[in-house]
Design brief:
globular, 6-stranded mixed sheet, 221 residues, 19% strand, 8 strands, TIM Barrel, alpha/beta
């Protein structure tokens, strides 16, 4: 999606929301137009929430000072779950540097995610959790033991506008996947919908199959 197409999307959705989320099926910091998108969002008084795997976050330090940016969710569980050439130390260091700078120079909220806890149905990749938590303690200058604190509760405020939370492994849903739980609630169509980079409108993160897509937003007046 180019800036012109993004502007068209923003004009159409602005009457219906104050927040947008750069999240569906991609890494936001890969997009060369991210800074422009944030500027367009600011011009339209929209707050932007970004979810990233953190691998490219060292490129994004200018973004944390942009007016539209409200929150950055950083999925640390992605390191172990995916192949990467980065070392764990450099990966966590880059993320900690971003958090420290954002915390010092902006009002951006930083939410660290470790969503890789095992469930009865899903085995997650979480063997590096203790190492990651120890590195965060050092690089964020924390005075708590995260591994112990997270055994008491899953969500912890580390400092002003910086949080960490642990949760069970999340799998992107598909209609043809085996049912693992029949009691699931989704905010799709009630509180949210998604727009892919090609303009396809989808109800939620259940977007992989064509039968969940509606139409292109450029055809919506």
């Amino acid at each position: 999606m180019d800036p012109e197409g993004f502007t068209d999307v923003i004009k159409k959705i602005r009457p219906h929301t104050d927040h947008i989320y750069f999240h569906l099926m991609g890494e936001p910091f890969l997009n060369k137009n991210l800074g422009t998108f944030l500027d367009i969002s600011a011009e339209n008084d929209l707050k932007v929430n970004i979810t990233t795997n953190g691998t490219l976050i060292q490129r994004s330090k200018t973004s944390c000072s942009q007016k539209a940016l409200r929150q950055v969710n950083i999925s640390l569980h992605s390191f172990e779950a995916n192949d990467t050439t980065n070392s764990l130390d450099s990966y966590v260091s880059n993320i900690a540097d971003f958090i420290n700078e954002a915390n010092e120079k902006s009002e951006v909220i930083c939410a660290i995610r470790l969503w890789n806890m095992d469930t009865a149905e899903l085995k997650a990749s979480n063997g590096l959790n203790d190492d990651i938590l120890s590195m965060l303690e050092e690089k964020l200058s924390l005075d708590i033991r995260l591994s112990e604190a997270l055994q008491q509760k899953n969500n912890i405020k580390l400092r002003d506008r910086v949080y960490i939370n642990m949760a069970e492994k999340f799998e992107w849903p598909e209609l043809d996947r085996d049912i693992i739980d029949e009691n699931i609630f989704c905010y799709a169509l009630r509180d949210q919908l998604g727009i892919l980079v090609d303009g396809t409108v989808v109800p939620c993160c259940l977007i992989v199959k064509e039968n969940t897509a509606w139409k292109y937003i450029r055809n919506i007046t």
